[in-house]
Design brief:
about 80% helix; mainly alpha; about 0% strand; about 190 residues
Length: about 190
């Protein structure tokens, strides 16, 4: 690794700050991919691989654009992500099955909440400017709107109902953690 760093500095003139950014990006990528592999294997063994894929893709698009709670350490992030995934994939869909009308109604509420209070960026990142905030809000709105649109079209296809339930609970849990992050940010805790 140190040879690669020396090569980057010698060949491309990377400063120590540039090297620190490269290390951060590589560590972040490793962290995220390791969690994806770990959770994919876990939910695969439990028989929930495809609901996991649906939930994680939806969650990733929402988190990238709308943000939310961010943990300082790998283990706390791993635990928080597991709790959100487990709750949205296995716990809540098996505990509460909502009608399509209820799903669309509450998804619209979540869409509005995400639009008005998002994005909540990590405290470790620069504060986004107004153009980026508007763009992220619009993309988050479109993501949830697309989910609502697909629910309205595919509501009568029984095989898709588990995915609709998982998607809905993923959106709800994302919205809850976003609200918590916003409250903590306003209180100066986060």
């Amino acid at each position: 690794m140190s040879e690669l760093i020396q090569e980057l500095q010698r060949e491309y003139g990377y400063s120590d700050y540039d090297i620190a950014k490269v290390k951060y990006v590589l560590a972040s990528l490793f962290s995220e991919f390791s969690k994806l592999i770990l959770f994919g294997a876990l939910f695969g063994v439990l028989g929930y691989f495809y609901p996991f894929l649906f939930s994680i893709i939806l969650l990733l698009f929402l988190r990238i654009n709308i943000g939310g709670l961010h943990c300082k350490h790998y283990m706390s992030c791993l635990i928080l992500t597991f709790l959100i995934l487990y709750t949205s994939i296995m716990f809540l869909p098996n505990l509460i099955t909502l009608s399509t009308t209820s799903i669309m109604f509450f998804s619209i509420i979540c869409m509005v909440i995400n639009f008005y209070i998002g994005p909540v960026a990590s405290p470790f990142r620069p504060t986004p400017d107004s153009v980026l905030i508007k763009s992220c809000r619009n993309i988050g709105f479109v993501i949830i709107f697309t989910f609502i649109f697909f629910v309205s079209i595919f509501q009568n296809i029984t095989v898709l109902n588990p995915y609709i339930q998982v998607g809905f609970w993923t959106i709800v849990l994302h919205t809850i953690q976003l609200v918590i992050a916003k409250i903590l940010r306003k209180g100066g805790i986060y």
